[in-house]
Request: fold
Amino acid sequence: MTTLGKEFGLPLPLIDVGNQSFWQGTAAGELRLQACEQCGEFRYPPAPACWNCHAMGGTWTAVSGKGFVYSWVIAHHAAHPGAADLVPYNIVIVELEEGPRLVSNLVDCPNEEIEAGLPVEALFEEVSDDVTLPRFRRSGR
Amino acid sequence: MNLKDEVAIVGIGQTEFSRGSGRTELDLACEAISAAIEDAGLDVGEIDGLTKYEMDGTLEISLVSALGIPNLRYFGQVGYGGSGQSSVVQMAAMGVATGQCDVAVCYRAMNGRSGLRLGLSRAGERAVGAFAYTDPFGMVSMAQRLGMFARRHMIEYGSTEEQFGHAAVTLRDHAQHNPKAIMYGRPITLEDHQESRMIADPLRLLDCCLESDGAVALVLTRADRAKTLRRKPVYIMSTAQATGPHADGIVFRPSLAVAESPLAARDLYARAGVGPGDVDVAMLYDHFTPFILIGLESFGFCGPGEAGPFVEEGNIRWPHGPLPVNTHGGSHSEAYVHGLTHVAEAVRQLRGTSTAQVDDAEIALVGSSVNQVSSALILRR
Reply:
């Protein structure tokens, strides 16, 4: 999958008061995740409380964007009309250095070269007027 | 109070399974429920409890109107599709055991192929909740979400696509004994599996369950009444349901090689007073073949990572394997009715009427879909 630009046909996220800080972060070129004010645990996707210690709230904190491929699939069957021109495309789960895992896509990497543990770093691609997606590329470490 | 042996399944019914029923889901539901009541030797007018899948498009009020049920006094819906499979039975059993109703029906009716096909994101709608963090990246089907688990099972334990294929061939072989299975008369080989097209690599077409039209219904009543009815009662030894702190979004979890079902399994065995070694036959949720492996490990039939070789060596194959699994062919090769077919097959095994009958089957386990939410049953004759 390469840059999708304005022709993006996959579902866009519904942005609301609970997750807007994340999407403001990606628009600014940062991955901002909630860190628990009590135990420090990061969490993702956004949630109103900490799964680890149950404390409410959390501080939106920029993370490194660096991590590694934890799992992946190659979508061959277009299960959504917006994917028809994309197959075969990769979907990866990236484990960040800070712990949380993100679903994303790896750009500029042939599908057959994806492997567990591959070091990656975030980049940001604007796909609509209000949505910038975090994607990843090989970091070459 | 303990639910153990208080309630029995006394009737099972189902429609034809197909890829295009040409009928409404309400029609299918009425036929399956009527057949289950007939099987039990009861009258439709005696139904006073009804539990259903929240995803089911038919409504209680439509059913009582269509069937002329005079007084439904206990009813409810269970969410999460195939994960709630055994919870639907649990909810019915709770109603019977506590006197909220006397004759409870569980059912699932779906035009799963000709009508609404499950698990797909809808075009034009924005993704909400945790799915706002998966769908925009093209993770829009269950095969893609659950393929992530299969990949991790391969990475962590060395499970292979061939082992997934052995599960597929085993289930398809079981269906060759079941004339009601959609894939009856259509056996496959391991080579067929390996040559089938990729859907969401590592999942191939022949790793995927069917999409089908049909309905299944069960009738439950108290154990003392069950003894007076037409069929040999199948007693509910235990039920369990579970979820945990990493359920939302399916894939945001510490391990993708295991899921929520070990939580359900712990309660399930403790409440029944039996262990995995006491189970004669198992019905495991098989939306995708790797979940036969993960189910075997989750419910303690294998240690972590041992299920691939276990399947490959023929241990789940009827008639010679020590733990035949999905003897009806499962969702993979009989029909996909959100796993209620699995409960019906467990009942047939314990009645001695399966088309792939396990000798002297005494105890059966039914396990739902293992991730996000899990539910399970142990039944005995």
